Amino acid sequence: MKIKELVERLNLEVVVEGDLEVEVTGGYASDLLSNVMARSSAGNLWLTIQGHQNIVAIAQLIELAGILVTENFSIDDDTIKKAKELEINILRSKLDTYELSGKLYQLGIE
């Protein structure tokens, strides 16, 4: 499923629009950056409450489909600026990580 489809189906806010046509191949939920680096894969959608610049660096390094900030947590202006430069998708939702993980799984994102 493509990012733009998830945005529509889950009513996600697009904070930074990179390539909304990118295919999401799976998901990973963690706030521990070292876990994301070790266990996520290219094409994954990363669910986190983190909003600092390091999330963009990790998304670029792993070639993630995007970052989904949960619970409507704030995202630093510098993070948004860097994500725009690198065309990294950053999405946001009011829902918590647990609920979003379930919804993504129901949509076929494993």
From TrEMBL:
* Ranges for domain DRTGG: 6-106
Instruction: Say which domain of life the source belongs to.
Output: Bacteria
For this protein, the record's SUPFAM superfamilies field holds: HprK N-terminal domain-like
The signal sequence is none
Pfam families for this protein: DRTGG
Q: Which residues cross the membrane?
A: none
* Name of the protein: DRTGG domain-containing protein
**Taxonomic classification:** Bacteria, Bacillati, Bacillota, Clostridia, Halanaerobiales
